[in-house]
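Backbone geometry tokens:
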Amino acid sequence: MSATQTLEVQQGVWINEQWLQSAGLGSRLQVTVQSGEIRIATAPAKITPSISSAMAWSIFRSLGKNAKVGKLQNAAVEHDRYLYGKGK
């Protein structure tokens, strides 16, 4: 379907949902603004993470399992000094 309508801009422009549907646009839209043009297209699908949050936390928690014991004295107390060179 091809349709053209001249709109008078007052406080914005309203695009009827039927126009969006007849253009085959989904419910997620991507709006591109360029000089002399505003383009509306279907937005790309949301990227879903390849692993679950639970799996990510499991991986994160496993990072210190092979750490050498006793290499940093008072690591909890001296945290800032060891990481950032700040502290006492």
